[in-house]
Amino acid sequence: MDRTVAISCTVAVLFVFTAMIVSYGKKRANRRYAMGKLRAPSVRYFKHLSKLLFFLNMLVTLFGYWFKMAGSFHHNNALKIVGALMVLVGYFCLRKSFAELANNYSPMFDAYVPLTIHTQGVYALIRHPIYAFNLLVSLGLTLSSGSAVVLINSVIGWLFVLRAIYLEEMYLPEKFPEYSEYAKRTWKLIPYLY
What is the pLDDT of residue 107? Predict the structure, then answer.
C-alpha cells in the first residue's frame, strides 16, 4: 500500500511540478505580459524567493513520499493522497483561471495594470483566483508531504500573496472605477471566508 501511494502521489505531484514550470515559463517569457501596460506596485523581492520556495516544496514533498524525513508531522497515506489531489485540483483550477484572465496576467513580483477587469467565470466569485489556486497547491503540498519545512515555506508564500492582494486592491479601484462595485459582490480570495 505504501509503495502504491508513493507512486501515485509522485506521479501527480511530478506532473503538476513539470506543468507549472512549463506554464509559468511560457507566460513569463520575454516579459510579454508587460506589453502595452502600465507598471503597477509589485512585490519585487519575491521574484527569486518564490522560485526557491516552489522548488524546495516540490522536492521535499516528492522525497517525502519515498523516505521518512525529519520534521514530518504525519506519515498518513490518506492525508498524502488527499494532499496530492488538492495539488491536482489546484493546478487545473489555476490553468482555467489563467485561460480566463488571458493577457491581463502579470506576476506579483513584476506587476502591470491589466487592460481590463475580468469579471466572468471564476472571477465572478473570486477576485484573485490565481493566488487562491496557487495557495491550494501549496496547501496540498503541505498536507501531502507532512513536512514542517513545506508548511513554513507555504506560510511565507501566503504572506507574500496577501501583500500582493493588498497592493492590487489599492491600485485597481484607482485605474478602474467599476472595480469597487465588483469588489462588493465578490470574495477576495476564499469564497464565504475572505
Answer: 93
